């Protein structure tokens, strides 16, 4: 599939972070120029035109064993940011992750330990949280505008083994009654599967009963041994 | 997961792409304008071109890709085959006559311990020990077992 990637990066270049002394992680208190506490002139940062150098760290950090970096962004902090800020932050995090991945690969190549590998995990976590915040906002907007909870339509369906699951619809060019491969899929449970479902249900109930009785037994034993202790929260 | 394209549909735009490129040092000698990347399997040549042009502002000329098969030959302590993941490699040639050499990211750096730390004291101790072992420098490398 040839997806022509035209990305909506508006004014990213004017906002690229100044030099690389500051990392994209949150706790090194660095504010975006568009944060408005009081009316003030917007910061004018230089456009960094470093091209392929952005895949590498600052030359001072080459060869260091540990490089200092801040904490990952939390969802709470990200929820305070505007959509433009989040969009730009995504690309900042993306470039940082690319940098760290090149560093990791080069370290493996040279058989040298990579400096502070936890940075990759921090960036990953920040990106995941950003994604969740954006999805939250999107779904809230969708609920208000159309009343739909999910972006992708779906339905509850049964498979051949009696499991009920959320089947998500896929986009096709032809209707389902003209689709031969789709018609071979059966979304119902045949009658001869009923004994198997019954046995499976019995097994599940038995396991649950065993778990609860085990808990009760352990609690009673502990109460016997230590009558004055309060109930352990486990 | 992407919407179907039929004639007349709007251009597909992807916001917040989840693809990461890794610049790697070429194993074999490459021409000076060629940069080697490891890219996710789902990306195509056009994706890489747009990615580099839009996000990194790097003018891209020709680009070629191939898929590297990760070996399934090695076995673990349970004699099970262990698969190394497959990956796609892209050879990107820069336009406008630019060249790129892969820099040396791990230069030799002198380890300077901070003042008053354990490591510094240990280093000093080792230095003194070695100094005691060494012969008199005024003798110019000659042993001490003969002479006055």
From TrEMBL, chain A:
Segments passing through the bilayer: none
Chief place where the protein resides: mitochondrion
Basic and acidic residues bias spans: 212-227
Cell compartments where the protein resides: Mitochondrion
GO BP annotations listed: mitochondrial translation
Region annotation Disordered: where it falls in the sequence: 210-234
CC terms in the record's Gene Ontology section: mitochondrial large ribosomal subunit
Top-level taxon of the source organism: Eukaryota
SUPFAM superfamilies associated with the record: Ribosomal protein L29 (L29p)
Keyword tags: Mitochondrion, Ribonucleoprotein, Ribosomal protein
Gene3D superfamilies according to UniProt: 6.10.330.20
Molecular function per GO: structural constituent of ribosome
Pfam families: MRP-L47
Family label: Belongs to the universal ribosomal protein uL29 family.
The protein, known as: Large ribosomal subunit protein uL29m
Annotated organism of origin: Gasterosteus aculeatus aculeatus
Automatic annotation (TrEMBL), chain B:
Tagged with keyword Ribosomal protein: yes
Ranges annotated as spanning the membrane: none
GO biological process: mitochondrial translation
Pfam family, one: Ribosomal_L23
GO cellular component entries: mitochondrial large ribosomal subunit
Cellular location(s): Mitochondrion
InterPro entries per the UniProt record, alphabetical: Nucleotide-bd_a/b_plait_sf (IPR012677), Ribosomal_uL23-like (IPR013025), Ribosomal_uL23/eL15/eS24_sf (IPR012678)
Keywords assigned: Mitochondrion, Ribonucleoprotein, Ribosomal protein
Statement: the UniProt record of this protein carries the keyword RNA-binding: no
Family stated for the protein in its record: Belongs to the universal ribosomal protein uL23 family.
UniProt protein name: Large ribosomal subunit protein uL23m
Classification of source organism: Eukaryota, Metazoa, Chordata, Craniata, Vertebrata
